[in-house]
């Protein structure tokens, strides 16, 4: 398996490459706040993406590489992510369109950086619309700011809420909670179909 270590302004990040036989795009996937790149829904998304002919890089943020559980501030996460995206675009995904994505906190990073990173799509697994029990502290504007096709896969009983649909944004609800562990084959299938659909016009 191919891996890379990338220096960012906020420490060392790591990326793990999963290749499709013939890559038509690159998908960068980030982990949740306290989790890693081995989360079941991320693994399922990798299977779906590679089946759609998309190379995938699973990205570990510098705070996780350094062994910390508590996430870095949003600005640091975004800066590190964009640094990794720029590096991997040249290293692994030369001349390929990029899709940003991730689970939970990683989905928020993907949304916030999609425009600057020139992503052609955003994949959100378990987007945390608000902290549990605090719907007034909504992060819906982060989703609303994304101007490219977006897929959100959300558990029906997710305590972090359910995002609203919108122009270019598809919401798919699945049985289960924030972990999205119950319907892994459905995640793979949905991701594969969505990627094939949004990438088809790009040739």
Automatic annotation (TrEMBL):
InterPro entries: AB_hydrolase_fold, KANL3/Tex30_Abhydrolase, NSL3/Tex30. Residues 25-163 form the KANL3/Tex30 alpha/beta hydrolase-like domain. Gene3D superfamilies: alpha/beta hydrolase. This is KANL3/Tex30 alpha/beta hydrolase-like domain-containing protein. It comes from Actinokineospora iranica.
């Amino acid at each position: 398996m191919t891996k890379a270590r990338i220096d960012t302004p906020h420490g060392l990040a790591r990326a793990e490459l999963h290749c499709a036989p013939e890559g038509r795009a690159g998908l960068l996937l980030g982990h949740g706040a306290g989790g890693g790149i081995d989360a079941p829904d991320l693994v399922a998304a990798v299977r779906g993406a590679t089946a759609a002919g998309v190379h995938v890089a699973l990205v570990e943020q510098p705070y996780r590489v350094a062994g910390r559980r508590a996430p870095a501030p949003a600005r640091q996460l975004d800066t590190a992510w964009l640094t990794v995206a720029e590096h991997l675009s040249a290293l692994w995904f030369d001349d390929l369109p990029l899709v940003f994505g991730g689970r939970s906190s990683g989905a928020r990073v993907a949304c916030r950086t999609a425009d600057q990173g020139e992503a052609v799509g955003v994949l959100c697994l378990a987007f945390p619309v608000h902290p549990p029990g605090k719907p007034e502290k909504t992060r819906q504007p982060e989703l609303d700011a994304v101007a490219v096709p977006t897929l959100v896969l959300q558990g029906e009983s997710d305590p972090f809420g359910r995002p609203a649909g919108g122009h270019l944004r598809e919401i798919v609800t699945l049985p289960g909670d924030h972990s999205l562990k119950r319907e892994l084959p459905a995640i793979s299938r949905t991701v594969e179909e969505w990627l094939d659909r949004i990438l088809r016009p790009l040739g």
